[in-house]
């Protein structure tokens, strides 16, 4: 971008129209060279980094045999009579014939060409911004995702242009003025002119009807112009714009849905974010540390790279399920955090119940002690009353005996 800014502020018109070498001050030339050299080095580093990280491999015979069947959706096993044995290859390796490999090679070559040709080719590198910006990536994907549909519509529209070019060549060749850039001496020239003028502003704006033509000529020319306006300018272009806008809306809705899913539920266990509201750290901690989806991906890549003979029991179990494209090893609708919280809650409930029972037991013991004490009190009072009555009776008997003895002595 710095190179482009230097070019933007320093380049002036060349000495002649046929000359493409711009006039630049000396500072701009040195700056372009220095920044260009830096750009070359960084581009080379990016390309080498891609080759080191992705390790692009040359496709094997198996890949070449299965390339087109896979593209057309034919199951490999069916195509090769059940012989779908895939040569073992790491998932970390990329094919040498993939987009990224050509992209980074082209990136470096254009950087070298930019240094060699005054900086012209550095303009292409500005487009790399789209690869690092999600919004721009979505805009580009809106065009590329439905690329086949757009290409079909464009090819179909070329058929319409060809028909109009034939009509122009047959009936309206005299309305094309070569001095204004409208050529129609051959069918090829007529087609190119109709496509060029038809897409930019409508061909009816550029064709000049010679003087002295009859009303019949103007009437047929009106039908020609109006049909071109309706079919090409209105319907055709709006179909293309509609496809692009619809794709962009789909991508935006899909992105919104994906963001909503990521915010509202865990990708691994499918539990809702509200389930983790009472847990420490909440939903964010759960998806970042407990059920981090990248950890699961790294685990699968780790199994891919590990020798099958060195698998542990768990690794063998996960690997077998992964080979069958099953996700039973995912902790669906369960999590250690929630389980721990549930266990803590259960333990707390048990402690509360036990405390209640102990308290109740103590109250019962105190009540029983009180009753026993009261019973003992009543028994003591009964014994005391009994002894008093006995003592009174004995004293009465003694008194009677004493009186009887005294009367006997008097006699
Ligand atoms: Zn989870």
From TrEMBL:
Residues 102-254 form the Ion transport domain. One of its GO terms (cellular component) is membrane. It is found in: Membrane. The chain crosses the membrane at residues 26-52, 102-127, 148-172, 226-245. InterPro entries: Ion_trans_dom, Ryanodine_IP3_receptor. Pfam families: Ion_trans (PF00520). Residues 1-18 form the signal peptide. GO terms for biological process: calcium ion transport. Keywords: Membrane, Signal, Transmembrane, Transmembrane helix. One of its GO terms (molecular function) is monoatomic ion channel activity. It is a multi-pass membrane protein. PANTHER family: INOSITOL 1,4,5-TRISPHOSPHATE RECEPTOR-LIKE PROTEIN A, RYANODINE RECEPTOR AND IP3 RECEPTOR. This is Ion transport domain-containing protein.
């Amino acid at each position: 971008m710095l190179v482009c800014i230097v070019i933007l502020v320093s380049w002036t018109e060349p000495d002649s129209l046929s000359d493409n070498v711009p006039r630049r001050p000396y500072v701009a030339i040195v700056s372009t060279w220095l920044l260009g050299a830096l750009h070359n080095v960084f581009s080379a580093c990016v390309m080498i980094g891609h080759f080191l990280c992705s390790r692009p491999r040359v496709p094997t015979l198996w890949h070449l045999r299965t390339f087109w069947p896979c593209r057309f959706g034919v199951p490999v096993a069916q195509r090769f009579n059940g012989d779908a044995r895939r040569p073992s290859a790491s998932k970390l390796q990329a094919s040498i014939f993939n987009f990224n490999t050509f992209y980074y090679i082209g990136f470096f070559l254009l950087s070298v060409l930019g240094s060699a040709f005054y900086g012209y080719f550095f303009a292409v590198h500005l487009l790399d911004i789209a690869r690092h910006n999600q919004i721009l990536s979505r805009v580009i994907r809106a065009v590329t995702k439905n690329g086949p549909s757009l290409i079909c519509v464009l090819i179909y529209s070329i058929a319409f242009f060809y028909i109009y070019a034939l009509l122009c060549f047959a009936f309206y060749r005299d309305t094309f003025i070569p001095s204004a850039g409208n050529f129609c001496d051959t069918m090829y020239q007529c087609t190119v002119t109709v496509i060029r003028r038809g897409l930019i502003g409508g061909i009816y704006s550029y064709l000049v009807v010679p003087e002295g033509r009859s009303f019949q000529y103007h009437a047929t020319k009106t039908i020609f112009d109006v049909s071109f306006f309706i079919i090409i300018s209105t319907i055709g272009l709006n179909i293309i714009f509609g496809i692009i806008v619809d794709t962009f809306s789909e991508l935006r809705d899909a992105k919104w849905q994906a963001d909503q899913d990521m915010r509202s539920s865990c990708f691994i266990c499918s539990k809702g974010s509200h389930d983790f509201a009472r847990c420490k750290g909440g939903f964010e901690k759960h998806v970042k540390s407990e059920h981090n989806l990248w950890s699961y991906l790294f685990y699968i890549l780790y199994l891919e790279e590990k020798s099958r003979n060195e698998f542990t029991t768990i690794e063998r179990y996960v690997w077998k399920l992964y080979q069958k494209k099953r996700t039973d090893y995912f902790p669906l609708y369960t999590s250690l955090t929630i389980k721990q919280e549930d266990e803590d809650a259960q333990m707390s409930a048990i402690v509360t119940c036990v405390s209640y029972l102990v308290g109740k037991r103590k109250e019962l013991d105190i009540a029983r002690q009180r009753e026993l004490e009261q019973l003992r009190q009543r028994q003591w009072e009964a014994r005391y009353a009994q002894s008093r009555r006995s003592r009174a009776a004995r004293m009465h008997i003694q008194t009677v005996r004493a009186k009887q003895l005294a009367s006997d002595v008097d006699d």
